[in-house]
Structures
1.
Amino acid sequence: MVQQKSRNQASPAARSVTLKDVASALGVSRTTVSNAYNRPDQLSDELRDKVILKAKAMGYRGPNPVARQLRTGRTATVGLVFSGGLTFAFEDPAAIAFLQGVAAVCERNGTGLTIVPAEQESAAEIMVRQAAVDGYIIYCLPRTSPIFSRILDTGLPVVLADYGDFPGIATVGIDDRGACREATQYLLDLGHRRFGVIALEFSADGYTGPVGVERRALATFDTAEARLRGYEDALVRAGITLTSDAVEERPENSETAAYEAARVLLSRNPRPTALLCMSDRHAVGAIHAADTLGLKVPDDVSIVGFDDVPMAAHVRPSLTTVHQPLAEKGQVAAELLLAGAHPDSRRLLPTRLVVRETTAPPA
Amino acid sequence: MVQQKSRNQASPAARSVTLKDVASALGVSRTTVSNAYNRPDQLSDELRDKVILKAKAMGYRGPNPVARQLRTGRTATVGLVFSGGLTFAFEDPAAIAFLQGVAAVCERNGTGLTIVPAEQESAAEIMVRQAAVDGYIIYCLPRTSPIFSRILDTGLPVVLADYGDFPGIATVGIDDRGACREATQYLLDLGHRRFGVIALEFSADGYTGPVGVERRALATFDTAEARLRGYEDALVRAGITLTSDAVEERPENSETAAYEAARVLLSRNPRPTALLCMSDRHAVGAIHAADTLGLKVPDDVSIVGFDDVPMAAHVRPSLTTVHQPLAEKGQVAAELLLAGAHPDSRRLLPTRLVVRETTAPPA
DNA sequence: TATGCCATCTTGAACGATCAAGAATGCGCT
DNA sequence: AGCGCATTCTTGATCGTTCAAGATGGCATA
């Protein structure tokens, strides 16, 4: 901001009007003027009106929020940290739904919402340093990110969303593993025996390709690992092993990335009869891939997504997917934070399998 | 935030560590500690290391952002005001693209971004009062909104996006009228003579239905009015009059709303051979409507959208639409604001008609 | 008349930092 | 020796508000 009112400057005329100015112009105390704005019951109505009127006339803009924040120790603002930058945050339907939930609670609560993009780590660190917030909600930030520790350093209340478990920090999430187990079991019950998996990223390094043991061991995103475990839980119980080349990791949550992954998986011999996808966008990409390979969904290949974003119901064929309450997750995160983010808080939201048109018994 | 460090309280142990504490613990001045963080060149390296180390050991969390903001008069944060609430902001693809542009500039600039939802006017007024920002970007807020004047009252720099023209305030936008004129001319050149329009809202009152002269006269959203004028410019030149029942207003920018509007328009006798839509989402809804009415696009009816969101290229048939640089609009808005939002700043970004598959000569 | 209480307004002290100006020191140059 | 200058650190004031506690006067109650 270039157009700053000059501070510490010779000309006092440039300084903006303050409580004190209004007070002395009226011959009352600062507190009285302050009360006129914040505690109308603390002074007579006539005086209050007089104060407000005079303030308007003098061009007073109301109590300065920053000064108030300093004095009260509250900013009435929460910080929301996203990994993957805002391109991700504002493009991924699941992230948007989460954001909506957070924002709704903030609005209801009269709390501001400051977005802290964590794309460039350097920028993010600066932001965390300078951001005036009362607490943080962290969404989809890898455990290893330096911003993570920087935020913990601030000593402010923190709520983690979609992290597995983090001792000493409030978390909200879903039972990823259980949800995936259930979805896989459903496919097993339909008779499927050969599976492929399109996985979200295990670590924020842009790796693309099959997922082996060593990669999983070093995972910094809990979500991918937990979901993969869930798939395996059910498969193992059915005596089926998921080989590493049956799992394709795609760091980008986009239809095109999954399209490509699905083509890889569906070209294997023997071909899987079912694809498990860790997001609906991935699932939609998989549908396209099957289509271009001349495979019918669900007759030739069943596809299961994750999230149940609005698109899942609209796409043709409509998507069988794991529903998770995305907006509610955001709401709960915000509520936990506003309630002080007690370190022991752990909220697990329910999921359910929504069966639509992309699943059927194998041919 | 419940978990507040107690202020003005008996127990001094509860107070958090400040610059002063670190300074006196080390026997140096506050300024020196401050400089250790902010101006490393102002003190010897050894002392600096000693200070930082001691600060860490004492649990000092770094200079308090709020105190700094008060002293420097800068918050390094911009406020972004959306109308229609966040449900709109985070769901409308055009709004998201704009937001991305704003966020990208903020990130590059080390500036925070505070979202001020303007859904509930009461909440929004509170937010504007308490938000610590250096300036505002206003997007899609009706001129008549009380928040509008509340923001102007703050005296902070303001940039308006997608407003026609606003004397004394910086604006960024596109030539809506010219863009629509061009799109219409293209349809005229193809041979079309009967038109229908699906319009965005003229005022934020939820009105749904045909648009007459009186409604247009009271418009509080400039965009809709400007675009409709553009359509008319071309039509009038071709000697065609747009009757009021050829224009259907739908306040909601959704496929379903437009679907319904398109069914109304396409049921008229004689049936229009071309539909002009003020958004791509509306256009997509219109395609569906034509489909269910058994009309082929573009053979039976041509459809033109507006925005050129990513979906426009992906939908089948792909959409002929007016491209506007949405993200760039957000960027420019942020840049103007960061540059001081000079009241005379007026930025008009280029648009262009992108011809795809939804337009053809009438049968 | 004394007492207490309520409503209304004032006072002085924070909140935690940054800034402008000045002091102390050492060093080199003439 | 005297001067200037750069480096490093300190001092006092200030940003604009809110808070706790106290002062004042009026009115009712005892």
Note: The longest strand of chain A covers residues 77-82.
2.
Amino acid sequence: MVFCSANLTNFGETLAIFVTVYALADCNNFFVSCERAFQPELEGRAVVVLSNNDGCVVARSNEAKAMDIAMGTPYFKLGKLVDSGRLLVRSSNYTLYGDLSHRVMNILREAVPDMEVYSIDEAFLNLEGIPREQWVPLCRGLVKRIRQWVGIPVSIGIAPTKTLGKVANHFAKKYPGYQGVCLADTPDKWEKALKLTPIGDVWGIGWRSAPKLQSSGVNTAADFTAKPEAWVLKHMGITGVRTWKELQGISCIEDEEPERRQSICTSRSFAEPITTRDELSLRISDFAGICAAKLRKDGSAAGEVAVFMQTNRFRSDLPQYYPFLRKRLPTAVNNTPEIVSAALALMDEAWKDGYAYKRAGVLVGETVPEDEVQGALFDSMSPEDRDRENRISAIMDKVNRSSGKTLLRVATQRPGHYADGIRREHCSNLYSTDWSELLTVK
DNA sequence: TCTGGGGTCCTAGGACCC
DNA sequence: TCTGGGGTCCTAGGACCC
């Protein structure tokens, strides 16, 4: 993609065809909106969705935001509001959210030449080649269609860089006058927006940098762009300079859709802390098995396996221990038995009696495409044996894909039931997927 | 009692080589 | 003995994102 910001200002629209324009489509309060799509009684109410184990708030309706409920608030601090009936709560239901996300993305994908799915609820649409006067009508049409067909409210910000797209998107969300779509394609438009954007709201400026910038008198995005580049480099490093340029219409953040993830992590907190080696072994095996399945789904193999376990960091009265052990494999693999046994060996090495483990996980890294795996000179397993392990894993994937395992996992998701060690006391049904009928049985 | 999970990129510093 | 200086690789930690 070729982009030159100067074209916009210096040459007007004659060169507009060479200009990349991003339209950032972002679902509003996505998890809450998914719950509302099937439970209209949640409409207009203060609603929050909780993390795994009903630990803390990960999504809020506008009404909940207006009550000053912060992202990450622990659930137990909301008891009063919930008891009074002013706040409604749902456990997270990732099967439902993943399904609705696919439906939203499919509608977007059909409408534009190219797009990058950035997260479960966001995508950068590339409007290259679409005449400028059609941008807004096209995006308004998408907002309307997604609301009608999937029931999810979406906002779209259009701008020459991703960071400005985020800024425009915030405006589209905040002011109903935009009808869900805000166009910030010229400097006069985005400069106005930057003056109204607090520095901490800028994409790429996190909770550590924002206070530092404010103490230097940088309170808005416009204050930030007014600083010299050298100042930004000195105080924020190269990533800060990128954000600084992006806010001025100079695109620095490339679309790089990483086909293969470089590392994959599967970890959980436990509803009840684990104190025995056998019990933790079971969970570590699960996590390692999930990592192996994710690798195969990506078409990757991992050259490294790591395991970590953690005691409850909030319990300062208990002994703390946070081991993290890693091991290189003689050759990259993605079959379940080898990943599991490597993880269990690491866990055994790290294990210490006398601690209550609250969280643990398995991480696989150094991924390579599975068809480019190089055999190692000192590989402990013969090609024939590995071939057999790989075939077993392929069969497991097949079984898991067909209803068997899925049903098993789904069955554990009934409200209040946590056979997999995860607490989900306020979970909605799986409304949109095929086997949802099975779940309505209480 | 109860505080998520899964990623990426950058930088500084140590080890090692010539 | 002098203990320089550039390059590379690795690792740990920090910061950010959703």
Note: Chain A has two domains: 1-196+414-442, 264-403.
